[in-house]
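so my prof wants the structure for this chain in the tokens format not the other one, which i didnt know existed until like an hour ago. anyway here's the sequence
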Amino acid sequence: MRIFQRFEVWLLLIVGGIAIWWSFQTAPNPAENSPGAEISADSPLQLRRCTLERDFGNARLDLEVRYKNASPRPLSMQPPDVRLVNAAGKDVPPFILPVERPPSIEAQTTGDVRLRFWLEKGDLAGPLTLEIRGQKLEVKKDKALDLEKLENAKPKVWTSADWTP
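here's what i got, hopefully its the right format
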């Protein structure tokens, strides 16, 4: 073929090759920025944020936690591996939306996940503890929180287990 004898074709091939090489060099590495990327942390289970949104007599609690899954298998963040326990020792039910898949953390990685629970008024009277495969994390201290004092449908955010209004 005589097409490769033309100067414009060679110029186009060289410029295209440089453009492809440059795009691979400047593209972000998804392994560095993904929630499953390895991080150095002292505790395998850390609380990042608690968001409580009152829904009349109940409340939805969104917990943002970082967990290091040292297991050789992926962890689906749902019962029985993941539990939120109230002061009476009973499990608080998860808040499940049919269109949302439960979060998961790949094997041998650390990831940030959002866990959702459906609280009743009595669950806020004492402490709340998150348990993930034997690791325990205090989510709410023993001090009672009056659900009636919170504004309906207005989220309240805490970054620690001390939930002072």
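also thought this was worth mentioning. The mean pLDDT is 85.
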